[in-house]
């Protein structure tokens, strides 16, 4: 089977390529021709050979989409500008008009082209748990048939795309994804923007790729909205996720005062149906931490050596941490005293 994969070189895209190729599918990667994407493609081409090809194009251009669709059997639509950590370098909440053109306009172009060409007729669209809105006051877990209440541009774009697909003549399936952070994680001010008690379901990026790959081969997913998460063993609070990651890379958990009190549009989800149909839940946050450690390699040693300075600069990024900023010389002095087993005052 030949799959057209839009947004192929982002976080989920690369995991999806791996899973599709592993089950013998061919992948046509559709993405913007940037220096970063070109580098990623060359690396993947060397690894997967004839199983992948690239079509450089812009999803906002109908002619690019029509050409990319030729000879494919199914579409997996990932291309989207997201709030943070977007492969495009743009953030949906900072450039909402551009994001709308890419997210909603691009999806509209894709649907139009598919309906015009008649083939392929099947599309898997990745949406997000964000469309449910702020739900911490509700009893978990979230279910597919619950009303949506999108709180920001990104989730409103996702919901509009969902509705376009549901009203189209295509065979569609919508995958609403739980939190799936990239392995090459960048820690910035965003870290501090969520209440530590916020319920959050984690799903490993490779498990998302597996769900999509299995979905491509399934005949039972069409016309369904499926919730894609790690399952009950991946039900955490945001604080638990942050602590596991920061402790795992040697930085250590940061003071709770550094974090926002505001809740975020994530929650635990009912993934029983998606797991039954797609059989994809193989990893937890502990596997994610191991992946980060492997990616960091020798950098872990330097993180441990310079832990006080790293913590100092991370806390400076928090707009909520108002405690007295201790001079670095004092931080280092206390750090080395603690290593020697002496009491720190």
Automatic annotation (TrEMBL):
<dbReference type="GO" id="GO:0003978">
    <property type="term" value="F:UDP-glucose 4-epimerase activity"/>
</dbReference>
<dbReference type="GO" id="GO:0006012">
    <property type="term" value="P:galactose metabolic process"/>
</dbReference>
<comment type="pathway">
    <text>Carbohydrate metabolism; galactose metabolism.</text>
</comment>
<keyword id="KW-0299">Galactose metabolism</keyword>
<comment type="similarity">
    <text>Belongs to the NAD(P)-dependent epimerase/dehydratase family.</text>
</comment>
<keyword id="KW-0413">Isomerase</keyword>
<keyword id="KW-0520">NAD</keyword>
<feature type="domain" description="NAD-dependent epimerase/dehydratase">
    <location>
        <begin position="3"/>
        <end position="172"/>
    </location>
</feature>
<keyword id="KW-0119">Carbohydrate metabolism</keyword>
<dbReference type="InterPro" id="IPR001509">
    <property type="entry name" value="Epimerase_deHydtase"/>
</dbReference>
<dbReference type="InterPro" id="IPR036291">
    <property type="entry name" value="NAD(P)-bd_dom_sf"/>
</dbReference>
<dbReference type="Pfam" id="PF01370">
    <property type="entry name" value="Epimerase"/>
</dbReference>
<protein>
    <recommendedName>
        <fullName>UDP-glucose 4-epimerase</fullName>
        <ecNumber>5.1.3.2</ecNumber>
    </recommendedName>
</protein>
<dbReference type="GO" id="GO:0005829">
    <property type="term" value="C:cytosol"/>
</dbReference>
């Amino acid at each position: 089977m030949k799959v057209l994969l839009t947004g192929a070189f982002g976080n989920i895209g690369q995991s999806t390529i791996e899973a599709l190729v592993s089950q013998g599918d061919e992948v046509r990667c559709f993405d913007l021709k940037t220096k970063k994407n070109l580098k990623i493609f060359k690396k993947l081409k060397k690894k997967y050979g004839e199983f992948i090809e690239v079509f450089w194009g812009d999803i906002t251009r109908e002619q690019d989409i029509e050409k990319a669709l030729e000879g494919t059997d199914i579409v997996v639509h990932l291309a989207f500008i997201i709030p943070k950590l977007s492969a495009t370098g743009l953030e949906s909440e900072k450039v909402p008009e551009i994001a709308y053109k890419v997210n909603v306009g691009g999806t509209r172009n894709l649907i139009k082209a598919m309906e015009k060409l008649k083939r392929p007729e099947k599309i898997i669209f990745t949406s997000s748990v964000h469309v449910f809105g702020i739900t911490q006051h509700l009893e978990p877990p979230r279910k597919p048939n619950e009303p949506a209440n999108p709180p920001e541009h990104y989730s409103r774009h996702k919901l509009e795309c969902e509705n376009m697909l549901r009203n189209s003549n295509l065979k569609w399936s919508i995958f609403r994804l739980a939190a799936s952070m990239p392995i090459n994680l960048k820690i910035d001010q965003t870290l501090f923007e969520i209440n530590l008690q916020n319920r959050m379901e984690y799903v490993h990026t490779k498990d998302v790729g597996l769900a999509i790959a299995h979905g491509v081969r399934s005949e039972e997913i069409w016309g369904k909205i499926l919730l894609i998460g790690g399952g009950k063993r991946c039900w955490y609070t945001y604080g638990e996720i942050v602590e596991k990651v920061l402790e795992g890379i040697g930085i250590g958990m940061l003071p709770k005062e550094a974090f926002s009190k505001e809740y975020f549009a994530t929650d635990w989800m009912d993934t029983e149906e998606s797991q039954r149909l797609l059989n994809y839940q193989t990893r937890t946050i502990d596997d994610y931490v191991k992946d980060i450690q492997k990616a960091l390699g020798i950098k872990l040693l330097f993180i441990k050596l310079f832990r006080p300075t790293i913590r100092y600069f991370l806390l400076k990024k928090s707009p909520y941490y108002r405690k007295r900023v201790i001079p670095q010389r004092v931080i280092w002095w206390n750090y080395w005293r603690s290593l020697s087993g002496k009491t720190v005052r």
